[in-house]
Specification:
single chain; mainly alpha
Length: 103
Amino acid sequence: MWDLLRDLGGRLLRDLAGSSRERRDLLAAQIRLNERETEQAPSSVLRLWRSFLGWVLALLFCWEVPVRLLLLPLLAPDLLDDLPPPALDQILSLLAGMLGLPF
């Protein structure tokens, strides 16, 4: 019984060590790609389309959460009826995908 558990534990550790090596290699390749993209990008405020999209999504998130959900009901509740439906689900899924988070 203990031999079986020891063998399973050893296999699990080998698998985890192998996957972490592969993950490190993938992350290093992504870092090199990001460095190459930033070297070739023109020097401006909106250097790459991803940074532009990130800023737009961050501003939309700031509109949806602090302004629309917190400030408007307190300061101007009559404006809530005229607003289009919230797009927080779409903004969060795009923002999470851009940040590499599961959604």
